[in-house]
Design a protein that fits this description.
By secondary structure, the chain is mostly helical. The protein has five helices and no strands. It has one domain. InterPro entries: MADF-dom, TF_Adf1.
Amino acid sequence: MATSSESANTKFWTVEKEQILIDMWSQSACLFMISSPDYSGIGTRKYDAMQEIAQAMETTVDDIKKKMTSIRAAFNRARRSPPSGSASKKDEWLIKNLDFLNSSSGISRC
C-alpha cells in the first residue's frame, strides 16, 4: 500500500512536469555526460545542478534523483524494445525526448 507521500509524489509528476525536468536535465552535462569531469567527481556541481532543478520545480533533490532514475530506466527499456512496431506512445516520447543521453553534441557544461 502506498504511503501518503508516495501518493502525493505520484500526483506531482505530470507529463508536463516530466518534460520540464527533461529539458532542464538536458542542459546540465554533469548530470548525464560520462566524459564530463564533473559527472563522476566528488565536487558539488552535480548536486548544485540537481538543487537548481529541484528549486525550479518546487520539490526536493531526492525526488529529482528518483524521477531521473525512473525516467532513465524507462528510456533504457524503451530502447531495448523489439522493433516489432509495437512501441507505445510513451516509449516513442521517451526515445525522442531523451536523445541527449545518446550523444554529447550541443551540450553546455554545468
